[in-house]
# Entry
Amino acid sequence: MASNPSKPKVYRLRGCPIHLDRLGATELLSGVLGDVRPHDIRIQSLATSLDPWARSPTKVGTLMFRKQPALVETRIGKSEWTFPVVGLEKPLVLDDHFLGMTPLNDVERERHEFNCIAISGLASHPFGSWQPKGGDKSFMWIRDELPRAMPDTRLSIYGYDTALVGSNSFQSIEDLATSLIDHIKSSGWALPSAKPLIFLAHSLGGIVLKEAFVSLASGHEQGMHILNLFKGGIFFGVPSQGMATSHLRAMVEGQVNEELIRDLSIGSEYLRSLDDHFSGLSLVRHMCIHWAYETKTSPTVMKNSDGSFTRTGPEEILVSKESATRSLYSSRSSAIFPINKNHSEMVKLLEDDANARVIVDKLQESCRRGIREVDADIGVVSREVRHVLGSPATTPWTGPSHRDGIPEHSAFPNIECTIGDLMESLEYPDLNYRLETIDANFEHTCEWVFYVKQGSLSRWLKNGDGFFWIHGKPGSGKSTLMKFIIQHQRTWELLHRFPSDALQISASFFFHDRGSLLQHSFEGLLRSVLYQIIGKLQRSGADISELSKPLLDIYAPLSGEQSRNWTIGELESCISVLLRQTSVELDIFLLLDALDEYDGGPDFICGILKEMMNMTANSRTRLKILFSSRPWETFERQFAAAPSIQVQDFTKGDIETYCWGIIDSREEEISVALGRIIPAVINRADGVFLWVRLVLLELANEALQGNDVDELARILNSIPSDLQEYYARTVQRIPEKLRWDAYVILEVLSTDLQPGHVVSESSFDMVMAALECSKHSTYKGCHRSLRLDSPPRANKSESNMPIQSDQAPGIDISTATGNLAELVRVGRQYGDLAIQFAHQTVKEFVLSQDFKRFMLGHKARQTLENGYTFIAKYLLTDKRSDEAVDYLRQHEMTTGCSLKDFLDSIPKKYFNQAEGRFDGPLAYAMYGNLQLYLEETLRRDPNAFRKTQERLLSICPYFIEHQSLGDPVPFQKQATLRRFVLEHGYTVKQDPQAFEGFMRQQDSCFFGVWAEDAGNPKVRYLWAASNAAMLITYGQDPNIWINIYRGTKMPFRLARQKKKALHLTKTAALANCLLQHGTPVNELDSVGNTPLDCIVQYWSTEHQLFRGEKENWRLLIYQTARLLVEYGGITKIATREVWEECLSDFQENGLEVTPLRECLDRIQFKKNIRERAMYLIARLWP
# Structure
């Protein structure tokens, strides 16, 4: 990007010290340039850089020169200049290319709500493309107008190189998207604390952004987090269905970037597939997106006689309205808007441009509607859902909290329990699995760890305290070293204090990201450590009665069952007891491996370890923690003062020993050939044992095929030293006929499974079944394949792992995956075959954005299926519809497509056999929140909902019984789906029993709160209230009589009652909805209760609730009572005494009761003995 001194230009300045304002930055730049006075420099913006990890934060400015510096004028063709400055850590950088991220403004932390990225189009300047044409370059609307219009939003532009003429860049759209993702991550927008994102994308920039979305959706947790941050934005002239490119092809003919233009052409299969993916992803994430289209033709590019190109060609519509709006103009007109300019100028807004106000309105709408709100009636219920359910705990660990969930007046007696019972409840399958499967040290390797002076682990074990950190590169042998330490006699000798009365206890936990949930979670850590410590205390023979009593008090079951599930709070409380105890002298040595494989945030686990150490301050427990991890910035920052060892600095000798040992184990001919190149392997290893193992395995296989030493040396030289590059090379060398098998196996292994699923993470049978199902598009094909060619069952074996590939039945996993996956044995007795990644770094490679392209090549673009897809097909074929739901939903969330064809191919009797819950695939989609399935059904047949006989409204959704109950989002999604089907032809008459069923559930959930089959009554009740309100707004008669049965212990006349919906509701939202639709406020039920009588009765059930639920329940009842009173509600059964008692309870808990007391005068309290008796019966109802 050559500098042209004759034209005004905007420059970017990076590296300004954080304390400088615009004046200070101007003087600094003037000083380093030397030939430009401060008044000749105009800094137009100065904002903090986006690097959240910078130790010395800096600022980034945009500026113009009244007088060009000589340095810029004389170096034509250069676009970046650096200026070292005395006292600054890094030099100042001046450029005019604007590549990467450029922040344009700062927002006060208290006001900061959103981030916005602007991405320019094809062959355009990242900054200049947003500026008006002409000589005056002092105005740029994103920088100069948007910050005033959106003061809570931080704005940035993103620049990338898409020059056409003379370009030697062969970047594909996927490459551009990967680069964008990398810049988003490096800007801190992958952090948990990152603000929601909105975007402005022009032309090719929109295609790149869409490709980035698709790539993020198929990636790991961090990628999903970034994608979830995007709430919407504006696409300007983005060619979703292609654009006119004939004039552009002439510019790139014969160049390596020719394919990029081909992908943008009208009729491009790539663009069609990308748009299908993106539209589904944006839909299921409720993004609010607007599409702007041009209404003027654009001059095309023409080649001049001298070979240059100018915009003097015929005028054309570069991106049609249909392409720019995805043909939404007929179905979603509110999502599109015109800009009366040509393709280039549609984003070049002038000062006071009328289009600016429209754009701001659209952006603000995207901010407001990040997650689409349900309509008015349901919105109130949703707020009550949030209040009653709360949200998952995010507060720091403050110690014991195990009694919070116990009822004040529990009817259950404490059960006598022993330490043995407690130990049994803490144990879980494969508790020692990871430790036992880590490779043992080879011969005398690892022994150096006790003798090196740097860090001196021996000195710390013997006399130190606090923390010791072992860190190193991925694959450098940290886990093997940690296993060596915990099992070596020397460790115990160094820890042993003589003489000492202290009980000496050691415990370890090896985080295992590729293992089961408990093997890489906080709960698993706590349970394992407690199990080891308490078990060793019990076996010590010492008197630990004072120590065990508080532990047993925490564990004591709350029911007649002898065991129950532990909560995190209870486990934390037990740890706290052990660390704060003052009854015995206790030395605890805790060894934790692979903290980087913990499934939560590194800051959290670091904070927990420090808090554990702090707990011992005034106790008789002495704690030492030795841990290992990769050298992440968080660990470096948190444990900078702790002694440490970097593994790869000391393992060259170990690697040499390992290499020669492997050579000696081979046949003589192979050993001789390999022996000649071992020194080169050792020199290139750079401390990474894993690389050495993989390289030796590959070279040994090549030697077996007869390759001589020279050829082996050539192969070695071709092997990348970086593990990720090595894996990319490996998958590209897998034979073409095995590529699909490898893709499926590795995808299934990388799939994140939720707790509670029956499917084992790496079950050999499951993976092989999923592989078979991946080859078929219909239920019949999968069923036939699994029935006739079912994967072989693995024989039980006592051997440990890993096992040799020739022991595996049916398929050679090592060959199929290029040694990236391996067979192991799992289970308590290690008798079942399973498949796992060869190393954690392999999983990271598979989860990277480039994996699919490396594995499938040109087929990657057309491949929609992933690990979730394959497992979902298998589970559906195996008639496990409940377990398939999560995978089907994740398939939609990660691919943007539904599995409609597969679901529609399932016989209807399959759904009818599923416990009678589903009438067919539509009902199953409602059950599982499968939004894209329903959307695609309607797209294919606009009358599908109108014609169906399936019951779609009364389905109890999956999330109520299986999902996290503290999250209101599933409620909103269910409301969205119900509204969707009702707005597209389905009516309440097609499911006539739905309304009555919802109202009965409201009644039964709390009157049966302790019933064994009540499920989660709180969730069921609120879901039923939301459904009932929805049906009323869509034509349901709210005044029908509903038969209620309340058990067989009461006389039949009392047990069977007839009520209307207002008698059964407990929330003000639903009550208001009923009243507004004509329900009388004082209608009597079959036993003479008014709705207000019923509310008072519901208040009287408060004593049955858990302590933590009473406040929420009381508030719901209060709000509803107040609403009924405001509408003129009275009581007929409740006595004045009970009413006063109710009001006193409200008042004692801070609720305003004046409006309720004012209504007492109009309520006629009767003292009829029969009515009082009936009220008492209702109140005392169990």
The mean pLDDT is 82. Residues 185 and 191 are 8 Å apart (CA to CA). The radius of gyration is 34 Å. DSSP finds 54 helices and 25 strands in the chain.
